[in-house]
Amino acid sequence: MFSLNKQAFINATVVSIITIALVFYGSRELQNFDPALIAYLFGTVFAFFGVVYRYSVWLQRPPTRMYYKRTWELIWNRQFFSHLWFFIKEFVQNIGFQKFIYPRGRSRWIGHFLMAAGCTLAFAITFPLTFGWIHFTLNPESGLDPGTVKLYEAHFFGFKMMEFEVGSFMAFMIFHALNWSSWMVIIGVLIFMRRRLTQPGLISTQSFEGDLLPLVLLLAISVTGLGLTYSYQFMKGFAYDFMAVTHAITVIMFLIWIPFGKFFHIIQRPAQLGAHIYKREGMRRGMAVCLHTGKEFATQMHIDDLKDVTKELGFDFTLEDGTSHLDLSPEGKRSRLAMAHLKARQENGGKLFG
Amino acid sequence: MARLPVSAEKLIEEFGPHLNYPPKEGYAGRDEPDKEVKTHCCFCGMQCGMKLLVKDNKVVGFEPWMEFPYNQGRLCPKGVERYLQNNHPDRLIHPLQREEGKGFKNVSWNSAMEKTVSEIKRIQQQYGNDAFAMLSGVSLSNEKSYLVGKFARVALKTANLDYNGRLCMVSAGAGNKKAFGLDRISNSFEDLERAEVIIVTGANVSETFPTLTHWIWRARDYGAKLIVVDPRMIPLARTADLHLPVRPGTDSALYGAMLKYLADHDMLDHDFIDNHTSGFQEALDAVQGYTLEWAEQVTGIEKAKIELAAQWWGKASTSFLLHARGIEHHTKGVDNVLGCINLVLATGRIGKPYCGYGTITGQGNGQGGREHGHKCDQLPGNRDITNPEHRKIVSDIWGINEKDLPGKGLTAYELIEAIHRGEVKGLISICFNPIVSLPNNNFVREAFEKLEFYACIDFFMNETSRHADIIFPGSLQEEEEGTVTSAEGRVIRVRKVVDCPGEARPDTSIILELADRLGAGDKFKFETSEDIFNELRVASRGSTADYYGITYKKIEDNMGIFWPCPTLDHPGTKRLWEDKKFCTPDQKAHFNPVKYREPGEVTDEEYPVVMTTGRVVSQYLSGTQTRRIGKLVDNFPEPKVEIHPQLAKKYNIRQDEIIRVVTRRGSAEFPANIVETIRTDTIFLPYHWPGRKSANQFTTGNLDPISKIPEFKVCACRVEGTGVFAGPSTDSKAYAST
Amino acid sequence: MPVTNYSTNQEFFVDMQRCIGCKACEMACAECETNGHESMIHVNYVDRAVTIQTTVQVCMHCDDPACANVCPADAISKDEFGVVHTANTSRCIGCSNCVMACPFGVPKKNEAYDLMMKCNMCYDRTSAGKKPMCATVCPTQALFYGTRAEMAMMRPNSTPVNNFIFGNENVSTKVNIMMPKGSTVLRVD
């Protein structure tokens, strides 16, 4: 049963209000806001609300809270800058380039990278556009003088950021950026769909709503988005309305689904870097040695934290002698189980079989 | 002539061994194969059934074959990984000719054949027919084994043909023939299921025949007592009811003492002994004085344990005794086998349900391959090449004059010695890697370096074929139709699953063409493997190993037929001797007197430690196939010396320290694995690796006087620490050691 | 989940005493389509210096899986058949909480993938009505997959047990371990 999480609700509400306020002021009291994008705006704000709500709920779970707590500790740590530098490096490698996917398969990495890059680029453009934070104008001086090259000006939060020539390569790249992102997503989606439809291992474990629908949705968004451009460029507006409506519907579906479905992993992913830093800091503090194998197997901080976390979750692996079953490495645990099993067999008249 | 044309390292670079791994997401088409072919594993004598998956003429994976009665889908790691020998980058796909200073160059089939035939003719004209020898192997099908036997005698006209079964189970074969007049395990393994006592001696079942463990465990589920005789606590022995850690080379003393104990306590089947056996008294006389105390002193096994084993064996109403190379690889291999048989006969537990005895044949077709005539003293149907009657029968079938049929030749190791002495000048081999698998292999290598001409048929270039002048790229097991006979005596079908890649050709077609070019084409008119099998059936008709009633169709319909099967309507013989009529001239089972003798090399002050050799679960024999399969190599990347902590302490050796093993035949270094699971006076070294990592650099060339099997299981050594510690095994690259 | 033929009357039974450490299961596991030639089963020596004893461990598929509980990313889920699935690749952040918390030492962290992987009872095979690869090939049937009735007939003197005590914790699982007849629980330490 769903019950409202107060803290999460407050966080989400606050973030939503701040967003709306930023939209209001960022668009110079709505003068730069494009009313045609109002549906997108609602979708986006809802997505923000949902994401923050879910993230807040998520942070309250014992294992996540432990990591959250440790993260704040690191801020006050002498190693802060070292960890920060590590974080930046890892962010580029693992969030930017998703390095960890490459060993899982080359085509898998290419597909994922294209989707991720496409989506990130699209977010970077559409959010500010929707919020009315950026808009483009024709430089009035160049616009009045028919002899000069016409210049576009880009504005952010109402401030002029840059200008470029109409018809220039820069203009081409900027005004078609969403098309580029669409193409990247489409290629990525097709690579992934092929995997999901042909590999027996994936077929047996995937679900439609969890794994295929997100791909379908991304494909629909990208195709209709591209369609909008190509419809007015090459097809004299053929099916423009249909595409505009479908695009809007799919994008809004996508936005409001972020907090609930597969796409939440985009929000979760940076926690991976947290885990890396946690391990890094843990190794600095010292390793745990397995009581059975006598070998180092994890950071002592991790094992100690896990003892607390498991207890909080209702698991008590404390042994009679005060140590914990968690003081054993995975190999040690397996060996101890086998030893216990052998002992139980032997105590039963030594009958190992039958 | 046959020194390596370039360095071994260079040859390895080009021809391997390289490690083959499957692609991350499996071979394409594994989930939707073109066909699933029911066939068998290419490795050990268990010949487990399995289905190979084929896509676009490539083996892309396997599926368990649940219906095959022996293994019902069960497999060992080698069986699981077996499919990876296909599609292997090292696969030989062109005929090769040695090029001095450069290695090997691709040549045409015609040129390779011409060169080989002209060299055969030259050597035979110059030095006599027997100066050109042939060595074969029992990973070959029954058809190929038969064909090789006929080829050597009829086309090559040499007496000197022998095979790698000589280092497998010839001691068992010789012992069985002496005692029963026939050489086959007496029962199918299903009879293990309700045996009350099982003795497994000198057989590391769980590593060398893992799938057989199931049948032993089944018996134990029903309450069977398991007795394991082995110098090491092998996986099978860990849970055994009784483990007898015998000192290597003293097995026959143990059986002698047990026989005496049975007789002294009258745990004998007098009715069986009196009516169906001969020689009991002589056998008993031979063990007079073999008291438990004496046995304890000789074997190093506590006498209470020996007594318990004898009591259990004596009182059992059903039983099974299994042995393998552990007792056969000795200068008294035949004695050891006969000692075991004496225990079986004394209690009369043979020829009855759940009462069995036999050797566990090691190689894939170790059973069938030793019956059909590529052994130096043998003709098809396990016939004797020195017996005029047998010679006549086979000569008639082969369409030759009996006088032209060569006589008995040299056994495998004697052949190597003859090459070393310069008496044999030329050699053709198939399916044999003697430079890794024969004892004292530095001597073996020297012999190969002395050959004037050496041709080899193989699918990978192994340590021996590097010495060849011509290499014919032959076929893998899954590239030709045929039959093999499993360790149970079950004749089964192996299938042609895919075609040979590149220019490689089926072994059969290579041998047939050589026969034709040697002028014997009219004697080798076979179109298919089945044609060869049909001639084999006729050639074995009426013999002790009678296959006459077995046809391809019958095998396929019944998932195997047990020989002897004399007529077409005969169902085959799962359990031998139910009629108590043995194949000896007097139709009785023969006891044989076994007096204890010392092994060929004994320990002394200079070499105070016994070294014994054996196998590991993830490797097979000389490793030509398995040292190329990535995951199998990763599982056991390098040989380590197993040594007891007491012995290690004496020499101040620590875990993972590199130690030097020194013998009269050389020395080499290996990491130490200090374990309490071995006798305190013995070290163990597995033998699958070549060059400096080879255990057979140390083993002696001492042979059993009857079976001529080399004594792989005992040699004297000393160990020395080096103070250096070994790096990770995976970095050792032992699989391609030189 | 897609259409499934998962057979609910077949269960997994483990008896480590039968294990000979051959690693056929490990090789076979890698052939399973769901884990891309990575093996998810564990075979290890218990203490090689003194004994040849090996143990074999598949995922026990706990009723209340510690791994899923400690996962900060909600990456591990249990399905309607009680199969605890391997980490969802998009969610798993590679923190190893599950690896260190599992009382049976089952989940494996693949460092290169920065991903936890574990046995999912050969879901590609079991969901198609087939037996898991490891239990099919196991030459000693230390791993067995079949019905309770089959097991009772084959090993009448043993009882399948699926309750384990680790200190103060009692863990019940979907997978059974074969114990002497009449046993109800295995106390590990």
Could you characterize what this model shows?
With 354 residues, chain A is mainly alpha-helical. Chain A folds into two domains: 6-272, no CATH class; 286-347, no CATH class. Chain A is 67% helix and 7% strand. A three-stranded antiparallel beta sheet of chain A has the order 1-2-3. In chain A, strands 4-5 form a two-stranded antiparallel sheet. In chain A, helix 1 packs antiparallel against helix 2 (38-60), helix 4 (80-96) runs antiparallel to helix 13 and helix 8 (177-198) packs antiparallel against helix 10 (208-234). Chain B is an alpha/beta fold. The radius of gyration of chain B is 24 Å and the shape is globular. In chain B, 30% of the residues lie in helices and 18% in strands. Chain C has one domain (10-187): Alpha-Beta Plaits. Chain C has six helices and nine strands, in the order βαββααββααβαβββ. In chain C, strands 6-1-8-7-9 form a five-stranded mixed beta sheet. A two-stranded antiparallel sheet of chain C has the order 2-3. Chain C is globular, with a radius of gyration of 16 Å. Classes of the chains: A mainly alpha (354), B alpha/beta (738), C alpha/beta (189). At the A-C interface, helix 3, helix 9, helix 13, helix 14 and helix 15 of A face strand 2, strand 3, helix 2, helix 3 and strand 7 of C.
